[in-house]
Amino acid sequence: MLSAAVRAGAVLASAVLLAGTAAAPALADDTASPEASPSAVAVPAGLYGKDDPTYDGVWRQSLALLALHTAEVAPADEAVRWLVGQQCEDGGWPSFRADTEADCTAATEDSNATALAVQALTALGGHTTAAAKGVTWIRRHQNSDGGWSYNPGGASDANSTGLAVNALIAAGADPAQVRKRGRSGYDGLASFQLGCDAPAAQRGAFAYQPGKSGGLDANDFASAQAALAAAGSALPVAPVTRREQPAAPPSCKDGAKGAVPQRQSAEAAAHFLVQRLADGKQRLMQTLPGADPAPDYNATSWAVLSLVAAGHPDQASDAADWLAGNGYSWMRGEQGVNPSAAATLLLVARATGLDPYNFGGSNVVQMLINSGPAPAAVPSAAASAASAAPDATLAPGSSVTGTDEDENGGFSPVWLIAMVLVVLVGGGVFLRLNRRNGATAARAAAEAPEQTTPAPAPAPGEDR
To answer: Is the Cβ–Cβ distance between 43 and 49 less than 8 Å?
Structure first.
């Protein structure tokens, strides 16, 4: 559910509108700004998004198709054909193939793009051959430690391993049985998870890769992404019934050391993520060299999805509210809607039971639709939402701050002004009532001076 701050903003908005004093927030379209730099690569007609697809074409297309499928939007045939056409002969996908007639370079095929494409095509259905070839590619390029690297032949990392495990699960394969030299995908994940020999605050976290000395350093994004695989889940994440108990840290009794057992892995990762979200005011943060810490929308989104998959939707709800209140700025790219961001937030909305047609005031479904080719069909809910408030599908709503920092629980400056107006209007009414009541009391006292003066009425908010 939405946070108290977001609900309060809506109530205050209604009060101000009734008083006739509200100002509407400025609207923004989702077209490229005139000064936006053109893409270095011609963007294919079937692709979602207008930015250069060189490094994320397959990734963003797969996310967009997955997310739209969860919203019961039938994508354009050309959008699906584009994704299938990007697949290499050996079954893998690169990040982007500008020339699909040229042979792929096996060493540059992308395990992350392949894993997401498999999940998208599996969800869509009707693409058994392409999805099966993708799974075969994933099996073939498993490393001897049980994990996967971003490109074939590299060292395994937690994110790539998690995504590969997601793809296997989506396709109906058991990651515990997909092995290289006796080590499974779950063994690969376990090699990146911090256990009982780590400081208490880091137990359950995942490292991206071991450091030069072989040690593991907790990494928020690696933890958020790998935790979905540890929970035995894949995209899209469906809403689940919450567990009775909050996420628990790994059991470290009797001097336990070593890796977190698989049966505790998801819970331990969820516990770490809950603590990190609390530390960051319900969002994960990232720090880039030379820059101040800033909210990491992507990592926060994956953390929410992983917590829901692990059975802790209640512990993900505040972070989902934060994304609803602040995610619009992430969805806005230099050249229009960022389809990866919009798709990820649509998946978050679905997993947490929030309304993707009014996700913090933004119609995420329509924003994603607008970023690509016209869909083959849309559900009645999408058509109704678009026709009822077409401008609202492209603009932040009452709970969107439009900034990276959210120190007011999702209020925008417009709604903070609204609060002041409500206080002023309400204060004026209160003073007028006080003066009127005071005059009435004075007349009553003059007419009956022998009566005892009644106790004053309590001020608003006092107990009666």
So the answer is: yes
Mean predicted lDDT score pLDDT of the chain: 81
Say how many CA atoms lie within 13 Å of 54 toward its Cβ. 5
pLDDT band (50, 70, 90) for residue 391: low
Residue 360 contacts residue 397 (beta carbons within 8 Å): yes
Helix (H, G, I), strand (E, B) or coil at 323: helix
Residues ≥6 apart with Cβ < 8 Å to 202 = 194, 218, 272
Q: For position 173, what pLDDT does the model report?
A: 97
Count other C-beta atoms under 10 Å from residue 90's C-beta: 15
**Which tokens go with 403?**
């900034």
> What are 241-279's pLDDT values in tens digits?
888 899 999 988 766 677 899 999 999 999 999 999 999
Tokens of 345: 């937030």
Q: Give the Cβ contact number of residue 233 at 10 Å.
A: 23
Beta bridge partners of 295: 285
* CATH classification (class only), 30-412: mainly alpha
Angstrom distance (rounded) from CA 363 to CA 430? 39
Cα 68 to the center of its chain, rounded Å:
15
Stretch 418-427: mean pLDDT, rounded? 44
**Which pLDDT belongs to residue 393?**
53
Number of Cβ atoms within 10 Å of the Cβ of 287: 10
Residue 390 CA to residue 383 CA, distance in Å, equals 10
Tokens at residue 160, please? 């790539």
Q: Which residues contact 286 (CB under 8 A, 6 or more apart)?
A: 220, 221, 293, 294, 295, 296, 299
d(CA 33, CA 16): 33
Which pLDDT band holds residue 452 (cuts at 50, 70, 90)? very low
d(CA 204, CA 336): 38
**Whose structure tokens read 């490094």?**
55
Q: Please state, in angstroms and rounded to a whole number, the distance separating the CA atoms of residues 248 and 434.
A: 54
d(CA 388, CA 391) in angstroms, rounded, equals: 9
